[in-house]
Amino acid sequence: MRVHDDPLAIDAAAWDALVEASPAATPFARHAYLAALHASGSAVPRSGWSPRFLTIERDGRLEAACPLYLKSHSYGEYVFDWAWANAYESAGLRYYPKLLAAVPFTPVPGPRLLARSQAARTALLRAMQALAERGGLSSAHVLFLDDADRAAAEAAGWMLRSTVQFHWHNRTPSPYADFADFLASLQRDKRRKIQQERRTVTDAGVAFEALHGDAITEADWDFFHRCYTATYRAHHSTPYLTRDFFTRMARTMAPHWLLFVARRGAEPIGCSLIALDPARGHAFGRYWGALAPLRCLHFEACYYQPLQWCIDHGYRRFEGGAQGEHKMARGLLPVRTHSAHWLADPRFADAVARFLEREGEGVEAYVGELSERNPFKAAADPSGTLTRP
Q1: How many other CB atoms are found less than 10 A from the CB of residue 10?
Q2: Which residues, 6 or more positions from 217, have their beta carbon under 8 angstroms from its beta carbon?
Q3: In a domain, 47, yes or no
Q4: For 135-174, where are the alpha helices, taking DSSP H only?
Q5: Co-location of 26 and 101 in the same domain
Q6: What is the C-alpha separation between 288 and 230, in angstroms, rounded?
Q7: Per-residue pLDDT tens for 293-346?
Q8: 3-state helix, strand, coil in the chain (%, to 5)
Q9: Which of 21, 156, 227, 356 is the most exposed place for a label (fewest CB within 10 A)?
Q10: Within the chain, where are the H helices?
Q11: Taking phi first (over 0 means left), then psi (-120 to 50 degrees means alpha), and beta for anything else, what does residue 30 get?
Q12: Judgement on whether residues 226 and 271 belong to the same structural domain of the protein
């Protein structure tokens, strides 16, 4: 077993082979993505992300690996443990630093314990516990894990937590023919609302251009980053990703990016950036921004344009990102996401376990309530999640 403070020290091809071996693989687990976060100054010690990547080799072959960080805060994670940290501090204990297995700033479910077997996944979890105990750390966490990781964590005695996101699924076995076909599957009030919102944007003289891969020029990336930073500042926040990160993405992972640019006449006024997994037909809403206020532009840029593109290109799923039950009225349905947690102090572990039990009951009730707001016509739910009897 080795611990690396720089992902560039790990063989990229060997790492990506582990990623591709997972049925739940995403582009965000790839070596190029993680390495760019580090090399661009986005996920680095000065921003609270100190890489401690784990690898396990046998006879020179990479058997397992994990993107692991020593965290000095809980920003950029999207699974919120601030209350746990406050409880530790109130008891005179240190919650930070903690160990975190995650893809920084990326709340997309997928493999975190990259491994050739469940035994290797278990070995990674044990190694994380050993690192935490040896370093006197409060805890270790694995965020947005896939089913194989979740099974390994549960078997290892880690506490499980669930949250809810909203994803769109193409219809099966007969995919939507076009956006109008998708609209026809929705209840009348939802269909009319979407049509009205789209008309608001077009009546304002706004048209969209979709740019994929190498068609996204450096000037386009500059405009996107300008919008991206402006949106964070409008919410009195600091953007996580540097301009250099997107330069590296354009150079190493261009086929995985789709940019929608909104123009009023010749003037670009906003954009949204979508990540793509062409091999699996999955798309992921990532970032958006606008330089001019326009009603309904956010819905068009972040939902309707991506959904129309996914339908036109035969994509199977579009993930809308963290939170936001307003997405449900636009055809994105609730999906549970999962995390796993290990706390060193048995008193706090017991308290958190009881909290998670209550929280889990609340999540179950929340999903039940959402089922009463199915936006699709009876028996038209493409995911089977909320189909009425």
Answers
A1: 19
A2: 211
A3: yes
A4: 147-155
A5: yes
A6: 10
A7: 899 999 999 999 999 999 999 999 999 988 788 999 999 999 999 999 999 999
A8: 40, 25, 30
A9: 21
A10: 12-20, 31-39, 82-90, 118-134, 147-155, 179-184, 188-203, 218-234, 243-252, 297-299, 305-312, 346-371
A11: beta
A12: yes
